[in-house]
Amino acid sequence: MKDLDAAVGKCAAGFSYTVTGTKSDALKVTKTAAPEGADEALALTTTVDAGLKAPMKAVVVRKGSTVVYVPAVNFASASTGKDYDFPTEIIDAQLAKLG
What we know:
Elements: H1 2-11, E1 15-19, E2 22-32, E3 40-49, E4 53-63, E5 66-72, H2 75-80, H3 88-98
Antiparallel strand pairs: 1-2, 2-3, 3-4, 4-5
C-alpha cells in the first residue's frame, strides 16, 4: 500500500500508456477521500484523455492480508467529462464480506 501511495505522487502530473497498440494519456492522478473500515485504504481519480477528458475512479483497500482493487467508470460522465462520486456501496459490501 505504501508503494501504491508513492506511485500516486509520482503519477500526479500524468503519464502515457499503450493498450493493444493504442496510446492514451492519463492527464493527472489525484487522491480522494478513502473509505472507512479497512486497515489501509487509497482512493484516487485519474483524468484520462481518450478524445474527451473524463474521470475514472479506483479504490484499493487492505484488510488483514487481503488487498482489494475496485475500479469504477461512469459512462455518462465519460461522455460529458464531468466528475462523479465513487459508488461507496460497492466497497462497503466488499469490506463487509472480509469481516
